[in-house]
Specification:
There is one protein chain. The chain is globular. It is of the alpha+beta class. The protein starts with a helix and ends in an 11-residue tail after the last helix. It has two domains: 30 residues; 137 residues, no CATH class. It is 34% helix and 13% strand. It has a six-stranded antiparallel sheet with strand order 1-2-6-3-4-5.
Length: 194
Amino acid sequence: MPPTALRRLALLLGALLTASLLAVGPGAPAQAAPIEDYASYVGGTTCKPKPKPGAVALGRWMVDTFGGGFGGVGRACSASTSEHEEGRAFDWTLDAATKADRQRASRFLRRVLATDDAGNEHALARRMGIMYIIWNDRIWRSYSDEFTPGRYLSSSCPSRKRCSKTLRHRDHVHVSLSRAGGRGATSWYDGRLD
């Protein structure tokens, strides 16, 4: 092979090697973390209302990404316990009576319940550790029907007509996380917690 051809081949190989190293980069993961299974239902059983880091990070992401208000995570303890009283549920302030907020909620639901490029259904919801979402008289559960929307009526309400806007979740979207999601110990939180 003539020297100029060897030189060209060496330059080409060097350029290809450099390009491949730049594409991967020193900090790039070899592959995405395996996706979590659907979160099982684990209701609140203790009174530890200090907001958990995963719930706070998810709430901030929702408000930063879609708008709306940060309605809070923890709640003062009462006779009955909930995920709020364990600091692992977030209320995203939206109003079902407004078109803009209904669109925000729809964009959020489409995003977290979408199938990812690897074919994993409800990929973000699973990576976030979402157990269930309640909004506008509907509930999406990971643990019994893999996020198929169902009708929702609070156990505190005798009927939908005699139920408050808050208990119907028409003035906020409620997102409850698994304990791992609340701690920020599922794959979505990698690199997101301080």
